[in-house]
Write a structure and sequence with these properties.
Pfam families: 2OG-FeII_Oxy (PF03171), DIOX_N (PF14226)
Strand content: 15-25%
Organism: Stylosanthes scabra
Protein name: Scopoletin 8-hydroxylase
Keywords: Iron, Metal-binding, Oxidoreductase
Number of helices: 11
Bound molecules: 2-oxoglutaric acid, fe (ii) ion
Structural class: alpha+beta
Mean pLDDT: 94
Radius of gyration: 20 Å
Family: Belongs to the iron/ascorbate-dependent oxidoreductase family.
Largest sheet: 8 strands, mixed
Order of helices and strands: HHEEHEHHEEHHHEEEEEEHEEEHEH
């Protein structure tokens, strides 16, 4: 028998404050989504008629052979156009990818009480947070998503504070993904005719975090979103999605022949998705794209996705690379402190504003 929520506040308390999440809501046996989850028309995601971005994944192992230049060109082209691409032979073992997905399901299948041991204010570390939606206290329509965020500082803390169900695999994944990120950043910077010192590259990916996202099967996928439109505010993201699908990326409106069409990044078994973040778009003076993306919900299966986010530390100064500004004759973005950028992203996310607009230099 489905529990009824007398008003929107009691639903909010149940899902957000009491830590039941969307999973807890679905476990009540709802046959339709509550009002609070219904997205405005323009944010709903149409499955039918959406093209799949059927581009072969890039084989990273070939960077070490005679095809080096060809692989570099593929990476650069993808970063300059869609800002999303998939990679295989990336160094993260297949078994680890499988364990990650299993451990995400294990964590979200815990009771609300067990998951809420990681709720803000209760969690043993401010770097570890279980929650739902994005900024639920500010959002009119909630996202159909629960998540656990695990910020990295040192191995000992990860092994002490991250949830037992996933800490070991998540830590291995974070380390291997960081290597991929470093390698791709070096390629992208070199392609601009520059070389960054090792310490500078480390500085722009100093903050590292693994998230596990959980989108329960949803009775009304046509009305909801698993994740609303956004671009990743950090440097680069490595993403593992399961086989269910539903990740949509917006094509660059500047490319002629389309006006912001959304395409689906199809799941490829064993592949990882690479997503260029806002910081790389800013540093490259707009040459590489941080694309808007969002996630659809599904009616009959629960989806998991596991991103590793990398970003500068909050006090880091960011802006277009100086040599590039000289070459281009214009700075398309201003210099700013990353913390100010983060603050702006959180303040505007629920207004669906493009976070990158804040960094644009005045005309
Ligand atoms: O679930 C996905 O496929 C994408 C997740 C995502 O965009 C994010 O967590 O920033
Ligand atoms: Fe994202």
């Amino acid at each position: 028998m489905a529990q009824s929520f007398g008003n929107s506040d009691s639903l909010y308390d149940f899902v957000v404050k009491d830590g039941n999440g969307v999973k807890g809501l679905m476990d009540l046996g709802l046959s339709e989504v509550p009002e609070r989850y219904i997205q405005p028309e323009e944010e709903r995601i149409k499955k039918i008629g959406t093209r799949r971005h059927n581009v072969a994944p890039i084989d990273l192992s070939k960077l070490k052979g005679p095809d080096h230049k060809k692989v570099v060109d593929e990476i650069v082209r993808a970063a300059e156009t869609l800002g999303f691409f998939q990679v295989v032979n990336h160094g993260v073992p297949f078994e680890l990818l499988e364990s990650l997905k299993d451990s995400a399901h294990k964590f979200f299948n815990l009771s609300p009480g067990e998951k809420c041991l990681f709720c803000p204010g209760v969690s043993p570390s401010s770097k570890v947070k279980y929650g739902t939606s994005f900024v639920p206290e500010k959002e009119k329509a909630l996202e159909w998503k629960d998540y656990i965020s695990m910020g990295y500082t040192i191995d000992e803390d990860a092994l002490q504070y991250w949830p037992d169900q996933c800490k070991e695999v998540a830590l291995d994944y974070l380390k291997l993904s960081s290597k991929i990120v470093r390698e791709i950043i070096e390629i992208l910077i070199e392609n601009l005719g520059m070389k960054l010192e090792e310490s500078r590259i480390e500085a722009i990916i100093e903050m590292k975090m693994v998230n596990m996202n959980y989108h329960p099967a949803c009775p009304n996928p046509e009305l909801t979103v698993g994740e609303g439109r956004h671009s990743d505010m950090g440097t680069m993201t490595v993403l593992l999605q399961d086989g269910i699908g539903g990740l949509y990326v917006k094509l660059d409106e500047d490319n002629n022949n389309n006006d912001g069409e959304w395409v689906e990044i199809p799941p490829i078994h064993g592949a990882l998705v690479i997503n260029i973040g806002d910081i790389i778009q800013i540093m490259s003076n707009g040459k590489y794209k941080s694309a808007e993306h969002r996630v659809r919900t599904t009616s009959n299966e629960s989806r998991v996705s596991i991103p590793v986010f990398t970003a500068p530390k909050p006090t880091e100064k960011i802006g277009p690379l100086e040599e590039l500004v000289k070459k281009d004759g214009v700075a398309r973005y201003k210099q700013l402190i990353f913390q100010d950028y983060i603050n702006n992203c959180f303040a505007n996310a629920y207004h669906r504003k493009k976070s990158l607009d804040f960094a644009k230099s005045s005309p």
